[in-house]
Amino acid sequence: MLSAVPKDRIPDDVLSVCARLRASGHEAFLVGGAVRDLLLERPTQDYDVATSARPEQVMKVFGRRFTVPTGLQHGTVTVVTERGRNVEVTTYRGEGAYSDGRRPDQVFFVGSIDEDLARRDFTINALAYEPAAALLRDPWHGEADLSARVIRAVGDPIARFREDGLRTMRAVRLAAQLEFSIEPHTLAAIPPAIEVFRKVSAERVRDELYKLLSADKPSVGLRLMLETGLLAEVLPELLEGRGVAQNRFHRYDVLEHTLRTVDETPARDPVVRLSALLHDVAKPRTAEPRPEAPGENTFYRHEIIGADVADAVCRRLKLPNRDRERVCLLVAQHMFFYQPEWSDGTVLRFLRRVGPENVPDLFALRVGDVHARGMGEDPERELGELRRRIEEAMARQAALKVSDLAISGTDVMAALGCPPGPVVGDVLRALLERVTDDPALNTRAALLALVPEVVRALPRD
């Protein structure tokens, strides 16, 4: 069995929430993921409390100034501690049927913590800890499953998954995060619940996918998604890569290479990991046999077509625009091939095209891509010199955008005696190209002297 819950790792303000409820005559337990993570000695961010107090009693204990009625119909009040931490305090409750596969039709209050724990998804989450008495309530033997590193549904797994379709994906996400296995009956209950999973909102699926991709080894969960049919529901495009051979530089087919790339991409940022998951998504659609190399394929422009596919996937999953744009950019740019013959201007154009803020993410994706070829290559052979040259360019503050030029649009209008218009932007962009090839030109005098020449070289309508 595991060691006792390390009470000294529970923040004082969280302990204070439980203590104030007890002092007012109510029971109060830490519940769910926080207890699980404390027992596993994992970092814990969110703390939830289950209590015998009704919502109106909780608000009376802490006062309206420090409470937010976030879910009174479900018995939940958010308590804001003196440190500004939000602690969700929920009355012991049971739940009725889930006719929509997303939320209970009815919530009713129950009289004990054990009854409350019976409604939870997995045994490792059906744990409650009472800090004052150092008492662990574990009616579903979750501590034993933590020791065995097993994810098991509370009660009938099919019933649990049909209550809330997202629990199917939560099971595989937890398997990836905790590096646990899923108990066979629980795993077997996922395919029959796919129809309920289809009712889950795209936003909830996206958030669960983000958590999975933040695991040390996301492929654990992704392979379980493939096995159970969840991957076909969430990212059917990836299945097109199964069995699609690549070339002599890759040991694995497109799908296996993709799963390994995600694991090998060092950034645990889920947006970068999602980019890794989608970086070769268009290879199956662009595959053409190489006549001179039987069994090998070419994939011309797969990164360009892949960016369009990635855009559609991100929109379907309701990614925020900023995340979607990052994913599409990384997919579109991941096929760069640096050559030592690149001039300084070529390096700057690469940097300008990618954006300096995106270079670390793009390099992280390339590291994963190289490792996942399975040929034992060192990514730094492709990245090391380019990384150094980019650092040098940034150190000398090379001009990467029009606003980095030593003159502005106002200066161009004064030099040409013209009003605002498209020509001003055209001139500035042309000057930026000149400065890219010769950084010494980025002075006010030099650029103003170049304006007439640049204007003469502009294409005529």
Attribute tags:
single chain, alpha+beta, Beta Polymerase, domain 2, Hydrophobic Seed Protein, Hypothetical protein af1432, 50% helix, globular
Structure notes:
There is one protein chain. By secondary structure, the protein is α+β, with helices and mostly antiparallel strands. The protein has four domains: 7-148, Beta Polymerase, domain 2; 150-234, Hydrophobic Seed Protein (Orthogonal Bundle), CATH 1.10.110; 237-395, Orthogonal Bundle (Hypothetical protein af1432); 402-457. It is 50% helix and 10% strand. It has 24 helices and 13 strands. It has helices at 12-23, 33-40, 55-62, 113-117, 142-148, 157-163, 166-178, 184-188, 194-197, 202-213, 219-228, 230-234, 236-239, 254-264, 270-278, 283-286, 302-316, 321-333, 344-354, 359-371, 380-395, 409-416, 422-437, 444-457; strands at residues 28-31, 48-51, 67-71, 76-80, 86-91, 93-95, 107-109, 128-130, 135-137, 150-151, 181-182, 288-289, 297-298. The strands form four sheets. A seven-stranded mixed β-sheet has the order 3-4-5-2-1-8-9. Helix 15 (270-278) packs across helix 18 and helix 23 (422-437) packs across helix 24.
